[in-house]
Amino acid sequence: MNALHELTNKERGQILIDLFPDELIPTLEGVEHFCNLILLNEQKIRSRWDNPLFTASSWFNLTAECLAVIKRLKSWKRLNARVFSEQLFYGYLSMVVIDCIIKFADSSEGRSKYKVAVDLLFKP
User: Fold this and answer.
1) CB distance 114 to 20 below 8 Å
2) Half-sphere exposure of 11 (CA within 13 A, CB side)
3) What is the Cα–Cα distance from 33 to 55, expressed in whole angstroms?
4) Which of the four, 17, 61, 66, 96, has the lowest number of CB atoms within 10 Å?
């Protein structure tokens, strides 16, 4: 295994679910929930947008793409950490997924070890 600072987002996503396999479905649902919130609050988010890396339109397009991937993944019978990470942690889509996973972990009660892992793997 590589050092933490050398891991790709895909590897980090797989490690998270490998460590917490029972959190795979809750994590997927949490990402879905926060993606839906982003799209529901589009006008409010656009009016406050200050991210120099992405335009607001790009962010909303990635969010919609993330929801489409999640919809597809939820129908798979053999969903696992590898498939989860390969489908959701590629390219710029991983930025939306990571943002939503952090929000999900921060909002989750009773998942202190999971939250610590998310903080370690994804927070700067």
Assistant:
1) yes
2) 8
3) 22
4) 61
**How high is the pLDDT of residue 111?**
81
The per-residue pLDDT for 20 is 96
Give the pLDDT of residue 124: 81
Indicate left, alpha or beta for 123 from its phi (over 0: left) and psi (-120 to 50: alpha). Answer: beta
Distance (Å, whole) CA 35 – CA 14: 20
Rounded Cα distance between 91 and 74, Å, is 21
Distance CA(77)–CA(35), nearest Å, equals 23
Identity of the amino acid at 85: S
Identify whether the C-beta of residue 17 lies closer than 8 Å to the C-beta of residue 24.
yes
Distance CA 19, CA 113 (A): 10
What's the CA angle centered on 108, arms 101 and 119, to 5 degrees? 50
Length of the chain: 124
98 C-beta neighbours (distance < 10 Å), count: 20
The residues of the chain scoring below 70 in pLDDT are 110
